[in-house]
Amino acid sequence: MLDSSYTFYTLQSRMLHLLTSIHHRLGEVRARHVQFPAPSLETAYRVSAVHATLALEGNVLEPLPVAQLVSRPDRTSGPAALEVVNTHSVHELLPDLDPALAHDLRRAHGVLMHGLAIDAGHFRTGPMDVLYGDPIPLRSAPATNLSIQVEELLHLVDSTDAPPVITSCVLHFGLVYLRPFSAGNGRLARLWQRRMLMRQWPVFGFLPIEAFIHRTEPAYYAALEYADRQGDCGGFITYLLERIDEALAELLAMPDPVRTASDRMALFFQQGMVRSFRRKDYLAVFPEISAVTASRDLREAVARGRLLRDGDGRTAIYRRKGQYNEMG
Q1: Cβ-count burial of 256 within 10 angstroms (0-12 exposed, 13-18 middle, 19+ buried)?
Q2: For the chain, how far is it from start to end, CA to CA, in angstroms?
Q3: What residue spans of 94-202 are helical by DSSP H?
Q4: Mind listing the domains of the chain with CATH numbers?
Q5: Which pLDDT value is given to residue 3?
Q6: Residues contacting 148, CB < 8 A, separation 6+
Q7: How far apart are CA 20 and CA 204, in angstroms?
Q8: C-alpha closest to that of 228 among 172, 161, 309
Q9: Which terminus, N or C, of the chain has the lesser number of Cβ atoms within 10 Å?
Q10: How far from chain centre, in Å, is Cα 56?
Q11: Does position 1 have pLDDT exceeding 50, yes or no?
């Protein structure tokens, strides 16, 4: 059975305040259509996330070499470069993985540690010392029933009624606590929290929360150690909520990108609009534009072959090319 000591947390007033703030910011992210990165910033966000999560594990590469490796992968330049290439590769793979499946967790680890660990993608089979900077181990993490414990942890966070933002932090701590693999557990825990959050909020697919953790690295490891010693990860959850809130605040402080009609149409499709729709549905997603602008966007999409149109004027029905008309 799952050891509740590493999934238990005390609910704190600070935690609730941060949760409210985060949900408010997530609503603003959606309203301003910044839940997907501007093309010009997508690579920069990825570089920031990859650099920070590896720096937390002692990788010495600076952001510029990381950016070069993200753009032009090179697996022959040594372990530090390989860590970058692998981490970028697993970020690319994330949308295809289910955060509730142990099989997908192992698959992510296999990509993350390819060429770096001989047992990449496999749970460890022996005990492991748990260290948080101090040379004296805090405890020994056994390998007994490890696969069952991981599956139970993933099931717990997938099925609980607790707020997903908080649950993602429990998942992060639980994976660090269990240390299911012989190496790479910290970076995988941060990655898997990202994957869980992405399922509900696309913004977490690119938001570099790891960079905000890296800025306060001593506090990150202190919060992990304290939670481990106390059997209560409430303080660690609060720490992570602070970093998530900071990352969202910085994103929202940036000026809104100037969007073309093509940009708006791409965002509209990313909202998950797969059925046939009318102009009013398009305007509901972009209330800041006029009806005239919406009509112009739709005409342009039809002219470029991105949409098919049935009818005329404001009652016209649109659908993506290749889709059937599903509107009755």
Answers
A1: exposed
A2: 50
A3: 102-112, 146-159, 164-178, 185-198
A4: 4-253 (1.10.3290.10), 261-320 (1.10.10)
A5: 58
A6: none
A7: 17
A8: 172
A9: C
A10: 17
A11: no
Neighbour tally for 180: CB within 10 Å: 27
Amino acid at position 178, single letter:
L
Are the C-beta atoms of residues 207 and 248 closer than 8 Å to each other?
yes
- What are the structure tokens assigned to 91, written together? 């970020």
Number of H helices, E strands in the chain: 14, 4
Residue type at position 261: A
Pull the structure tokens for residue 229: 């010693």
Whether the predicted pLDDT of 217 surpasses 80: yes
CA 16 to chain centre: 21
pLDDT tens track for 166-182: 999 999 999 999 999 99
The 8-class DSSP code of residue 69 comes to H
The burial of 194, by beta-carbon neighbours within 10 Å (0-12 exposed, 13-18 middle, 19 or more buried), is given as: buried
